[in-house]
Amino acid sequence: MENLIAAAPVQTAPLFYRTGAGAEVDLLLETPKHGLWAIEIKRGLSARPEKGFLIACDDLKPARRFVVNSGTERYQVNADTEAIGLRGLAEILATL
Question: For position 80, which CATH number holds?
Answer without folding.
Answer: 3.40.1350
